[in-house]
Amino acid sequence: MNKTLPRAVYAIMGVLVLLFAGLIYAWSTLSKPLVNFWSQDVLTWTSTIVIVFFCLGGFFGGQMQKRGLSIKLNLAFSAILMICGFLITGLIGNTTGSVIFVFLGFGLLAGLGAGLAYNAVLSAVSGWFPDKQGLISGVLLMGFGISAFLMGLLYASNVDQMDGKGGIPWHICFLAFGIGCFIFLLLGALILKKPGLDFVAPASKKDKNGKRAASTFEDATPSQMIKKASFWLMFAWAILTSIAGLGIVFLGTPIATAAVPVLNNNASLLAIIVGLISIFNGIGRIIFGGLFDKIGYKATLLIICGLFIISIGAIILAMATGSQLILIISYILAGLSFGGVPPSQSAFVNTFYGSRYYAQNLPIITMNLLIASFGTKLVQAVQSSLMAGGMTNSGAYIVVLAGVAVICAIAGIIALFIRKPDTV
Questions:
Q1: Residue 201: inside a domain, yes or no?
Q2: What integer pLDDT is reported at residue 1 of this predicted model?
Q3: In the prediction, which pLDDT does 198 show?
Q4: Residue 411's closest CA among 310, 333, 304?
Q5: Is there a domain that residue 212 lies in?
Q6: Is 164 strand, coil or helix?
Q7: Which residues contact 90 (CB under 8 A, 6 or more apart)?
Q8: Same domain, 295 and 408
Q9: What is the tally of structural domains in the chain?
């Protein structure tokens, strides 16, 4: 499709593509019926593998674009990887009973495919919104963020949980998701494209004197970017805030039941409360993406850290009081704050280092998720160690959460030292 469409169409198509690519973050829900075949400890490794290959997929996508491979081919390739990943998991993994095919299918292939799609969509669509980098990053990543909730809810409502209530076999659901990914990623390949060199955003065509506005971007190659102090400070900020966010996401259910024990007897209410993190994670991406444009990067980063600390304080208060209402408020705040991290990274890279090498620069800063994911495992290990030492469940969580609040405070201090490239 060579015809140029209204830029809003590219934004909507980008959200739909990332809604399906974001299925990789729904693993905690998708894997529930699979515990009847493999242990939870074994299946947990799939989430680590998928994050690793998601990051690698984004990196390879940037390199493929650098070598001239179009957005369309990147998305077509990611569509093939995604459907193959779900097919291998649902068909071969189910029939052979080997968890290796789950690692290979969902972890490796689907992870790579999602990373390729993520990079392609952000690099293509963000080019149409040079005047609204924060907002468009938030809108696109909202689709990626709420995928786990929406797709997970669809899956949980229809899949056979093997509890005697019936439903669609899990491997059939995986096949359906694989086909859905294939269709929407191919649609993205047909529709999405980068703007031409002559494109100027409507709001920035002319300044108040009638002259064309000058670009404020500094186009930096990846090697130039990683030599700047601003990059490493932002990378450190992203690691620390991602540890906080992922820790709350991964421990959302056990924290909720430790704070409000009666939730153990109400699975549906528990799912709704924990799901608030994903819902407001998506909303937070739009809010903080817009704030990035309106109030600048520093104030946005500091607000995210402050909101993280407030949300953690509210969780601790819920632990101390057993209040379900306070727990709900804390999860809303936690979702909002964690939602601000991805669009801030995306807009930071484009605003500080320009759009020319954005496809190669973005996956480099996204690599912080690799470190953050292992940091989250460390948080879980500390909590388990405290309990093994005789501390109560809620007491162990309070200590861990207090430590996470300190991490967020350190991230806020780091944000104060981030300077624009021309002052580094």
A1: no
A2: 52
A3: 74
A4: 304
A5: no
A6: coil
A7: 105, 170, 171, 172, 173, 174, 175, 178
A8: yes
A9: 2
Look at residue 216 and give its three-state secondary structure: coil
| pLDDT number for residue 218 | 65
- Residue 139 parent element (H or E): helix 133-158
Query: In 10 A of CB 74, how many CB atoms?
Result: 28
- How confident is the model over 49-107, as pLDDT tens digits? 898 899 999 999 988 888 888 899 999 999 999 999 999 998 887 788 788 999 999 99
* CB 274, CB 259: distance < 8 Å: no
Contact, 7 vs 129, CB < 8 A? yes
131's tokens: 């005047």
With 0-12 / 13-18 / 19 or more C-beta atoms within 10 angstroms meaning exposed / middle / buried, residue 294 is exposed
Please, how many CA atoms are within 13 Å of residue 61, restricted to the half-sphere of its CB?
A: 36
**Per the domain annotation, does 368 fall within a domain?**
yes
Full residue range of the structural domain in which residue 63 is found? 7-196
User: Is the CA virtual torsion 404, 405, 406, 407 positive or negative?
Assistant: positive
Measured CA to CA, the distance from residue 356 to residue 194 in angstroms comes to 11
Pick from 132, 204, 189: nearest CA to 10: 189
Same domain, 238 and 122: no
Q: For residue 343, what is the domain's CATH number?
A: 1.20.1250.20
Residues 173 and 129 in one domain: yes
pLDDT bracket for residue 203 (50, 70, 90): low
In percent, how much of the chain has pLDDT > 70? Answer: 94
Cβ neighbours around 352 below 10 Å, total: 23
In the numeric block, the tokens 């649609």 are attached to: 187
The answer to whether residues 142 and 67 belong to one domain is yes
Does 215 reside within a domain? Answer: no
- Give the HSE-up count for residue 107: Cα atoms under 13 Å, Cβ half-sphere: 17
**102: Cβ–Cβ under 8 A, 6 or more apart, which residues?**
34, 38, 43, 46, 89, 93
| 153 & 252 share domain | no
Cβ pair 419, 231 in contact under 8 A: no
Does 73 share its domain with 134?
yes
- pLDDT tens for 135-171 read 898 899 888 878 878 888 888 888 887 766 788 999 9
